[in-house]
Amino acid sequence: MANLKAPCLSLDARGSVGEAISFTERRGQKIAEKKPVLPYIKSLPLQYQRWLYQDYAFEWTLRSQAVKAVYRSAGTRFHLTAFQYWMKYNLLNLPDIVGMWHLDARSDAIVPDKSRNSNHGVNIGAVPATGFIDGCLYFDGINNYVEVPDSASLRLTDAITIHAIIKPDSLADTQGIVEKGTFAGAWGDFSLTVRNDNKFSFAFNNGAVGFQSAYSIGLEWAD
């Protein structure tokens, strides 16, 4: 039996070996390294990051030239373009997000807020279930909910966006998705609900209650 003093490896590897190993040159030498394995493309963290990236990229197109000039100036010291600095700043600081609850099938009593505002919630009865991506929380529509204490960051007086991914079991009764305030015989600050006529409804109370009905919804995943 022959003794090998060096691995039998071609620097022009093909097939499965070539797909698993990459070659880089360091200090005049070729180094063989195992290629990194990318995480599952549909994992929740990657999807959240992708959605945030798309939102902030779109928001950039709405900025004035004066605002873009500010980011261009700030990015120069880091050798970044105005757009790159805008994306870096927003993705790191999430300045426009007042609350982000993933509800990703955690059985913990505390539902963490992934924004920078620490608006953590308490899970009241909801149980882990299979979600649209990975897991989710299942609410029975009777007395299950996540309760988030009031805070200054949640007292909204300007334009807002509410994003949720839901899958109703039934559309026989009106069910709340997000509600700010008591909504027990009196209007709270705002709410997003699914009505019993198969439509989303958004209510915003700024002294005069207003409704905005959107498109119809079925019993499939919707956002």
Automatic annotation (TrEMBL):
InterPro entries: ConA-like_dom_sf (IPR013320)
Record protein name field: Uncharacterized protein
UniProt organism field: marine sediment metagenome
